[in-house]
Amino acid sequence: MIEVVLGDITSEAVDAIVTAANESLLGGGGVDGAIHRAAGPQLAHAGAALAPCDTGDAVATPAFDLDPPVRHVIHTVGPVWEGGGHGEADILTSCYRRSLEVADEVGARSVAFPAIATGVYGFPAARAAEIAISTIRATPTNVERVRLVAFDEETYELLTAATQG
């Protein structure tokens, strides 16, 4: 089941939260910064031990200070948009697929995703929404509930439209 919501990903009642990380896994701006602030400084220490994380890949750490039932943070490194001719769509697809695979590895049955790579990385939000939905639908997984958490009304509308397309 895929649900689209408008809100704060750090307050989602799910087993795992996906963060749009940078390769260092030390935290950054946007949603990654918000998740790191909510989880506490131990998240950066745990991420550093696993870094670097390749673009398009994903790894999991404990959720530390995030409120239960969240047990894991899945860090995935999205592509920086360079006009679309450098494999950006394939890399973004890999982010969603690998995040679901990692969710399966840690036993998560519910996962919250942000709109990966649409912030400072500049991936066009409408195309990113289509990739998110099609990849989640096409990826075999034991995850029973996926929540796509939009940070603004425009992203919410794009994700909602993509679920209906």
From TrEMBL:
Macro domain boundaries: 1-165
CDD domains: Macro_OAADPr_deacetylase
Top-level lineage group: Bacteria
Pfam families assigned: Macro (PF01661)
Database matches in PANTHER family: GANGLIOSIDE INDUCED DIFFERENTIATION ASSOCIATED PROTEIN 2-RELATED, MACRO DOMAIN-CONTAINING PROTEIN
Record protein name field: O-acetyl-ADP-ribose deacetylase (Regulator of RNase III), contains Macro domain
The species this protein was found in: Micromonospora pallida
